[in-house]
Structure to design on (347 residues):
């Protein structure tokens, strides 16, 4: 099976390592690379000195994307900078290739409808890389909600915050895609988008939202450094108030979701892989999962992508879900810019 990797930064290399582990020598890697940086990462995101990525994984590289597509890959993994996702996906979909696309879909809605049309016409399987759907905390949240133990859900509060200056210690943060508007940077599109996906998947899409934020710090970036988004949605016939926040400033990192119901609440800590459940006047129940491995999320999404591909079925995380998350993100950016509520159907 031939896989075309579009970009081989940290996330692209993670997929390469996982696919080799999962499928061994049955995978032949080719890659479209522009800069061809020689950094080779370990699972712990440490640079492996003296190790050539292209040699270790026998990757044939191309500097022309159309030439790479001419090699007739069985699937295309789009793992380059956000602002280049759409043009690469469109070229692959025009040829009928199945696509694994890292989040988010893009940094604008340009080309989105065309991609939907091409994918339908050419029967392309498209899988969105929102790995946190496979996190033990997300799975437990769904089980707890299904049990109705919290009663009627009233509100949800989420936070996903990291310190940009030390997220990637091997590079200057100010030059990364996360710091640059022209590459699709900012915490909304790079951190908060994960929670937007989980929340719209479980609790549904809002009709409108309000967001505040911007750049208040001295970080050398031209995107927002923090954002707070609020909206209401309908879950099981009742209004639920949702708030999500994100920033590029906090250390230690924070990633949590708190769901409050009439009979109790649940607190999810994604970084600690723990679930704290309060029900009525009972003693709180703390669940920890020391055996949970973060990389397992990525392996499972890769397995699901290839299962969908083999069965020619819609993927577990389809393109439309990625589009829905992107609409929330873009509506939030618009709300911050204009200091007013934004209707999602205007995006």
């Amino acid at each position: 099976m031939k896989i075309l990797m579009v970009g081989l930064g940290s996330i692209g290399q993670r997929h390469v390592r996982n696919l080799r582990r999962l499928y061994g020598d049955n995978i032949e890697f080719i890659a479209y690379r522009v800069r061809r940086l020689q950094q080779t990462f370990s699972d712990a995101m440490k640079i492996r000195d003296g190790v050539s990525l292209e040699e270790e994984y026998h990757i044939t590289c191309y500097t022309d994307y159309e030439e790479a597509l001419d090699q007739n890959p069985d699937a295309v993994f789009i793992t380059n900078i956000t602002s280049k996702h759409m043009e690469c996906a469109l070229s692959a979909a025009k040829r009928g290739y199945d696509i694994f696309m890292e989040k988010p879909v893009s940094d604008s809605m340009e080309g989105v409808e065309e991609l939907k049309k091409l994918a339908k016409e050419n029967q392309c399987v498209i899988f969105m890389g929102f790995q946190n759907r496979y996190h033990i905390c997300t799975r437990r949240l769904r089980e707890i909600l299904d049990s109705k133990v919290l009663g009627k859900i009233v509100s949800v509060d989420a936070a996903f915050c990291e310190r940009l200056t030390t997220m990637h210690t091997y590079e200057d943060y100010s030059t990364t895609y996360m710091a640059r508007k022209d590459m699709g940077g900012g915490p909304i599109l790079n951190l908060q988008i994960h929670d937007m996906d989980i929340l719209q998947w479980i609790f549904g899409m809002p009709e409108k939202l309000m967001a505040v934020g911007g750049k208040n710090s001295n970080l050398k970036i031209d995107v927002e450094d923090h954002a707070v988004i609020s909206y209401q949605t309908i879950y099981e016939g009742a209004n639920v108030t949702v708030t999500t926040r994100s920033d590029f400033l906090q250390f230690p990192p924070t990633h949590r979701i708190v769901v409050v119901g009439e009979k109790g609440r649940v607190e999810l800590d994604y970084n600690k892989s723990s679930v704290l459940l309060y029900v009525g006047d009972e003693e709180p129940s703390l669940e920890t999962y020391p055996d949970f491995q973060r990389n397992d999320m990525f392996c499972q999404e890769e397995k699901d992508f290839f299962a969908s591909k083999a069965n020619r079925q819609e993927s577990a995380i389809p393109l439309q879900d990625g589009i829905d998350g992107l609409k929330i993100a873009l509506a939030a950016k618009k709300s911050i810019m204009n200091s007013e509520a934004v209707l999602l159907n205007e995006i």
In short: The chain is about 35% helix and 25% strand. The two ends are 38 Å apart (CA to CA). The longest strand covers residues 226-235. The CA atoms of residues 187 and 342 lie 19 Å apart.
